[in-house]
Amino acid sequence: MTWRQAFGEVVRSGLKIEETRLEPLLALRAAAGLAIVVGAALWLASPAYAASAALGAYSAGGATFQRSWRPRKVVALGTGVALALSTFVGYLAAGRLVTFLPLLALWAFAAGMAWAVGSTAGIIAATTVGSMLVTITLPTSAGRALEHAGVIALGGVIQAMLILLFPIRRWGAHRDALADALAAVADYARRLRHDPTAPFDPAPLMTARDAAAVTPSQARTRPPALHGPRGLAERIRPVIAALADPAVGAPAEGPGRDRARELLDAAADVLDAAARSIRHGTPAEVRPETMDALRVDEEHEVLEGPARQAAERLVELLGEALEIAGSGCPPGRTPMPRGPAGAEFLERPTMLRLVPVVVRAVRRELRPDSPVFRHAVRLAAVATLGYLIAARLPLGHGYWAPLASVLVMRPDFHRTYARAVARLAGTVAGVALATGVVRALDPDPYVSGALTVLAAGVSYTLNRTGYAYTQCFTAAYVVFLLGMGGQAWEQTVPERVVLTLLGGALAMLAYLVFPAWETPRLQGRLADWLAANGRYAAAVLRDYAEPTREHHADMRRALLGSREAHAAWQEAYDRARREPVRPRGLTSREAEEAQDALKGFGRAAMLMESHLPRADGRSVPEAERFAEALETDTAKAAVAVRERRNPDWGRVEEALHAWQDAAAGNGSPVVRREAELQKRALEDLATAVSRTPLERDVGSAREDQRVRATLAAAGDGSPRAHRDG
Prior knowledge:
Layout: H1 3-15, H2 24-44, H3 47-63, H4 72-92, H5 97-113, H6 119-135, H7 142-165, H8 172-194, H9 203-212, H10 216-221, H11 229-244, H12 255-280, H13 288-293, H14 305-325, H15 354-365, H16 371-392, H17 400-408, H18 413-441, H19 445-461, H20 467-484, H21 489-513, H22 522-545, H23 549-577, H24 588-609, H25 621-642, H26 650-661, H27 669-689, H28 693-714, H29 719-724
């Protein structure tokens, strides 16, 4: 992308309205927690204490809307404690710049490194930096600082208590994650009816697996239906893909294809019914026509060979899904899946055991080329620089500038710039709205407190519609909050707009000075995905060559590794397409061709998985040798791709020829067919990435010419131009 295109995309993303499901009951509960602490502080103490209490309650309530698989009350309580700690420690060092600035830089750096654990940890950690910047101006002594810290922590405690006393959709996020995974496989089945080689995005399955990891205490209270169906979706996906594929499943035309479409439609209906059952905790009905389609008539079944095997396996798996979808459980409860009561579960570490996990995650990111490390350095630099600049300006509330920077900054270019645009737009709209309300009502502290709670409640409600719209009411909330403390709107409104603009500009400038572009790292991400796909395909072949429990476990681990590498590539690829950086190593067309080749390679391995024999199957040594060659060549090819050398598939070709020569009676011809498709996909990958340095320079020049020609034809800034760029 050019800079002009990138800025256009940034503005559109920053102001985009996200079409997500609102959660007004959760917003009402969080706003009630804010109302309790603000009202109590105004009645029993002073507006200054009310401001501290509002900070803790508002931030703790907002944290519960972040994506986290831990209980919301734990998130709220942890946020309140972290805010209180940052407030007290910040005040102890706030007397002199020589002590406060190093503390602020260190705290901001640690907050940036929190992204190594996850986005939720990073966002909550950023709010603690904001707390340090804001609330150190309120207390007048160490004792008062401790009191303010206690009041802030109390806000988190109140939010946690309300969550405990008034639960809303227990396990709701976990139910949604599992239901989304089943619904994604159902949608995949419907798309396969019309496109037998349709792609599948494994992200819902990865999210469902992440949600399935629970602590021992959560495992004791988790609804049984949240344990088994995820594995069911995993097993159904390769079976429906094998059934739909004309090369290894149903024929491309004729009665066999019609029967395959009928089974795929039935699979989609059953999976959708199971998804509804799990999402709402109630039984679901399946259409009678679907039940009829799932009856396999031994005499009149038109499918034959591998297609019939896939159909029978699909009917068997859908029978398990029907037990979930058609269970007669009473409302509010979920059906018990098959398996022993004490079945194993994916374990999530408790808060105490999380410490070494966090340390390891942070240690992995402590390297100069890490986006998380670079984000932490930018955050520390901008927080301290913004604080110094704002302190020199003839404006009050100078902390708003570094606060705006800290809250909009993210580890990648696009989200940082989009949030900066959204924050400025939301702040201008919010302060304009709040100014009109204040001028019309001239509220006293209690009315200002009520307006504060109202603005916060609307902000919570719009939490998932887009940052600009949430920020609009957050800005109004701040104006009302300061008005409750006696600050006139004539002072706060211009200051907030100017300082927010300054903070956003600092955040943007910091990324330009010390960027973490994804474009130069695409080649490494592609190499990681290639190596992971090779390990997965080799593990499938070993399980086919000699079916054992150990080989099956290895295959499952390799599949998860392949998905993680694919997700890392996809995230890097999407970010790179939005960056105003010229292609380095891979042009956009080469990256797209390599991506398609690796998707085809992974799909062939998935189809192999659907034809794995039973545990008592016979050994196929040729498949074992092909697996060894495949893993060796893909590992070496990954190194070659990373070093911009041409990959070589000599061992794969020799092993495949040996398998074909010894084909008589040695394994399934369908699996050998998939092995040939894998080799073809690897050759397509080599074609995409194998170029001499001169050819690469010519390719980059042609890429630039193609983009300019597209822009000239479609008009600069059009959606088509953005896709091609």
